[in-house]
Amino acid sequence: MKRFREDILEPFADAANIKLVDYYAKKGLRPLDPAESYEYDSVDNIIFEIAKKFRKKRSVFDTFSYLYQCYNEKETQEFLTRITPSGEIKIPERNSVLRYKRQAVKLIHDEVEKDPKKLKRQEIIEALKREYGRACKDKKHP
Amino acid sequence: MGEHAKIRNIPDLLSWAAYEDIDECLFKEGSQTILSIVRAFKYESKLESSLSIYLDGLSYDDYIVFIKELIKEIELTQKVIDHFDRSDQAERVSRFTAFLLSSLRGMAESLLRLKKWKDAITVLKEALNLKPNDSDIVALLGRAYLEDENLEKSKTISQTDKVIKDRGRAIERESRPTGADITVEVKEKSGDEFASRKIAEAKSLIEQGKQSEAIECLDETLIFRHDDEELQIRIGVLYLLLEEFDKALSIFKRLNEIFPEDSRTLNYLGDSYKHLGQYEKAEKIFKRAYELNPTQNVISYNLGCVYCELNQFQNGKYFLEKAKESSPDDLLILTQLSVAYIKLQLFQEAVEVLEHLNKSVPKDINFLNGLGTMYLFTNQYEQSIRIFEEYNEFRPDDPRVLMKLGIAYLNLKQYKNAKYTLKNANFLEPDNLIGLSYLGLLYLITEQYQEAKNSLEKANKLKPDESTTLVNLAKSYYELGDIDKSKIIMGSAYEFDKDNSEIKRNLEIVLGRLQGELSYLYPKPDTLFREFSKDLSLN
After folding, report:
1. What digits encode the pLDDT tens for the residues B240-260?
2. What is the pTM of this model?
3. Are B10 and A58 inside 8 Å of each other by CB?
4. Half-sphere exposure (CA, 13 Å, Cβ side) for B486?
5. Cβ proximity of B228 and B143 under 8 Å
6. What is the CATH code of the structural domain delimited by B343-533?
7. What residue of B is the nearest CA neighbor of A86?
């Protein structure tokens, strides 16, 4: 879900003076099927490293993974569906998915902000600038 | 994988999480994550290779626990995928299943080489849970069983190798033929001997009441002789006998795929569904079996039973009567037929069947109860008393039967006996509406109005909208001189049952608009039927 990535990257993109709409336009379209491989960049790699910190918050971590891979909320509901011991199919509420989504964004932002030296924040901003510059030079995506 | 593993994409991230879980022995969580990757992302051989490395690094015990969790998770995931009807995801899970199966086979082969038969059996059993009909796995398992058996019984391994060799390709890879002179007949004979011995052992264990050991014995036989249909039927029937309905179902489902038009297999398949409470499925299967073989009365009987379970008693009656035509004395058919008759309120027909049953199995308390009740419903009070007195010899303190006995006495105007039995019933089950209503009625008839009022007040509390209770209560107040209360209560009775002319007449008398004596009412037959038909399971 592109919007989800934008929610995560927005404060850093603002600081880097980059419009995320332009950023993704320059980088080109991703595959339409989220089940396909994505070409993640160094910005994404930093986010993944941060996401490792909340592995134990399973629902939030899983929601983050699906949404980051551009699945939508409805598909995420499907992936989070579980079968109870009595054999009942338990689909999580849409509101639960939305809550996990908000928590995931917040956890990433909190993790970045909690560093007093703001190194992680700076790292993301630099990576955004670098990736954006590289995408601008790439003639495949004018 | 460690905190610093390079994460390049989401599947990498999830794999890292899964392996962290496995490192912490959180196998269930690890399995869930692995299946998430398979289900939601592009299937990559990278996952297989990294998982293989992890599996190889686990101790045998952890390996088994993790594999069990993975297999369980695959089953659950398949159910969820089926629910959402996602063929692309199903395909990826199927690829992963094939990978896991091959990994299990490899593990089992290593264990067999190390002569760890029991461990190999455990691994192969898990593999069979994943794919029940895989011939390689079945053959390997057959070999593992025989090797294990032979060690105990000091038989030569070469002979068993040869026997199994004939049963699967996997064994061809593994066996080292040392007994070239052993003929095919010898191989078959050894295999048959093994299976026959196991079945005989299972039967003997059943007779000794050692159910779980018998099941284990059959499981082994089944794995070894998965290709022998006749043997599978015998094993399936034994599973039915042992009430292992899931196992029976799985056998008969498989056989049904091979012989879809075989009425015997269909009947057993339907029977398995029936015992598992899946009546709609059972009905479909029995119907097909009946179409193929309408003269087989066990099919008609089963179809009749299933219709009764589905509350389609008219259909149930039809097929049970059909079954009865060819087996008029079959107790099971007659019992179920009597249930259908009772539910359809065909009391006289029920009486005839129950008389037959009572004659065939005298002193069976269920049949006595059923017959006595049906006599009561057909106003044959003397017969009802005779039967219930007989029942009382076995269970003198059954309040329901005492109640029915009291009702029969009351109808025969034997008030002393009625009072004795109804009071006893009321003592044993004080909050029974029918008991209280009839006791109240009896007191009214015998002009004990205060006692009548007390019983009927209690009955009224249990069911305030029962018009007959209200009428009798109003009469008891009236006879005790409390006319105002009587007016109110009779008015309520009229509100609940405006079409009842007797209640209307009573109300007019209470209101002073009509001269005459207030009548009392018997509880409605419907109420009586609802209350007493609950007791008649007859099984």
Report:
1. 888 889 888 988 998 888 888
2. 0.51
3. no
4. 22
5. no
6. 1.25.40.10
7. B76
